[in-house]
């Protein structure tokens, strides 16, 4: 009877784990601090945007800058960097408060890395003081990006006419470039949404919503 109870407990535990899939650990975890610093030092940051992000204190906001690596546009779902991976974006909390979504601290810098999991999934890893987030990278399903840039927002966007795309805040534009005559988008959820980065699906986000 004791053996039957033990077997039931083991089977139940396996069923619970199977019902709650989680991303495998990021390959970035195997990279030493010296290698990480060297890769960041060789990165060129472009296509930056600065956004007033929701802060952890009720009613407060904090200015957060996000930039893309020049090669960010080449990667995305099904096309992760080889080896340990590479940084595709950088976030800097310019202050004054602690950012709410990930807990980015004032005056601190955070990197978004892409890597390939053992099952072929493209993972992102957000690393920095007090923050370590690993999850699946989500594509927005557009044509491949032609430039690398970064912002905040979801894949759900409002269409923007080619005429109006030349005005306003260019930092809020979606996949299409302002002034090219192509239809663009206005990003939603910039204050509290995920990181948005150019990729092989036009743009990718660190979360589906």
Q: Number of helical runs?
A: 2
Number of strands: 12
User: What is the rounded Rg?
Assistant: 19 Å
Identify the overall geometry.
Answer: globular
For the biggest sheet, the summary is: 6 strands, antiparallel
- Through-space gap between termini: 48 Å
Neighbour order of strands in the largest sheet: 1-2-3-4-5-6
Helicity, in percent? 10-25%
Mean pLDDT: 80
Into which percentage range does the β-strand content fall? 25-35%
Write the layout of secondary structure elements.
Layout: H1 2-18, H2 33-41, E1 45-54, E2 61-69, E3 86-95, E4 109-116, E5 122-128, E6 131-136, E7 138-139, E8 150-152, E9 157-160, E10 184-187, E11 195-199, E12 202-205
Antiparallel strand pairs: 1-2, 2-3, 3-4, 4-5, 5-6, 7-12, 8-11, 9-10, 11-12
Concise summary:
This protein is mostly beta strands. The chain is built from 2 helices and 12 strands; from the N terminus they run H-H-E-E-E-E-E-E-E-E-E-E-E-E.
